[in-house]
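writing this on my phone so excuse typos. first protein, seq and then structure
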Amino acid sequence: MRSPVDDDGAASAPPQPRSGCAGAHLSPEGVTRGTRGETLVAIPCGDREEPLELVDGEQLLVQDVRRGRPILARKPVPNNAVPASIAQVDWLAFTIRPGNGRDVAWLRAQLQEVFNLPADAWRVSSRGWMGYTQRIDLGDFGLSAHGGERQRGTMHVELNAQACALVADWEGARAWGESLGARIMRLDLAHDDFEGLHVNIDIARAWYEGGQFNANGRPPRAKLIDDCGSGEGKTLYIGARENGKLARLYEKGKAQGDPQSPWFRVEVEWRSRSRLIPWDALVRPGQYLAGAYPCLQYLSAPQEKIRTIQKAVGITYQQMVRWVRTYAGKSLNVMTHVYRGDCESVLREVLREGVPKRLQPFSAFVPKALLERDVTPCLPSEKTFLGDYRKPIPQSGAPNGPK
């Protein structure tokens, strides 16, 4: 799981819609735009949302006109041939300029009403964030930021995977964002194959080598992180974050801590650099994920956020049990002898309020996620764990004693 704070974030202000650029005199030799310095042919435009052409599978739009030259932006294109349900929203960051006297209290109420964020998650920090003077931590769900003359009255919100799992009405979130003219600064869409049958690291590499990530005939940049058999998991990166579009295809279960897990994940991350990310993607995540690269149209399994949470919680729970057995198992064994096998009395002695740090990111889901899954016991047998509490505890080094 990623941290609520990522490495880059808010823009100083969301762009304000223009009525169009009709009558603008555009240079016939084209304009240079984009981090790679590609030359894009300028053609007259009539409306800000009119696509000019497809570039790397995305629409090229005229976002603005300055001094007779168009300011161009890309816009992700959905693949309407696939179901919307094959992906889920895994990260959402946006910037708004609320105006009309709306303040931080208004934003807090909106995040609770629209995105179901718990009211008690709000924690004011003494730090700023990415040029904003005031940061507010949203518990395990992300952050908000505001303040600062250069930010021109905007507010920024980062909602991580746990926050996105709380949203019950993405259609309502879309309508809310569009009505406020909010600009999406980052959007991650994800697809999980829990058995690794339809996509895994070998299939992902074959897709890349077969040109299935190519757009306009050009192969994107790729990087493979190999765990060399350690069980920590392999990751294939396609594209580059600095260009505003990055795919991560990785062994999610192994990354979570289970070296035997076949769980594989496909994620595409869009950033707002020279790009307009539509709020429509929140309600059609599968179609936008499939539209990102040609090979992703092959994904077909419907996604359920609760299944993803259950899987992550289950792996983390088993890690926690192994940790307790390794570092506290012998102590619990002694206590069980003292209490003559009364495990309830042992637990009453050692239980503490709260949730372990490794489970805190899932704290809103832990009871439900564990109750709705089959927890596979990873403890030794009762006889091995307890021994015979009716006999004295063997001393170390004694016959049949612990070694």
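second protein below, same order as before
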Amino acid sequence: MSSKTFHLPEPRHDGSVSLEAVLRQRSSVRDFSNAALTSSELSQLLWAAQGVTHGDGFRTAPSAGALYPLEIYVVAGRIQDVENGVYQYQPRTHQLTRIKHEDIRPALAAAALEQSCVNEGAALLVFSAVMERTTPEVWAAGHPLCPYGGGTRGAECIFAGGRVGYRRRGGGGV
């Protein structure tokens, strides 16, 4: 399979909605729109979770030793200008690399107790950890912390989604 690279639009670094307003309006939802996610909205979500903020490669979220073992995969279902499939987010270049052509949302929904938001979500963000990126010194503390890091990245996506007015749900589709 050949990979396809998709360059994401430049993310906004200033929003029109305050973080406080997003926090005040935060709630879990079970009623989702069938609207497609725009590539600009996806860009903003991914930048909020793992985007590079500094020339040295530092990102929007901290990582022990700046080793960044967490990776984000996008399962694209309905994203404008992005073909369905699975993509790996490349934070340094702010682009997506397609690693699978198939729509795996039905398989993920089956693994997630048949939640319709997983099967029908415009995009699913999947967080994983590459533990080999941690050093022996960080491993002892880092291994149990990786799930927390994934939760932190998910929360950042929820906040970013709130800032662009997108309805979202942690643990399900965005």
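Residues 96 and 151 are 21 Å apart (CA to CA). thats all i got for now
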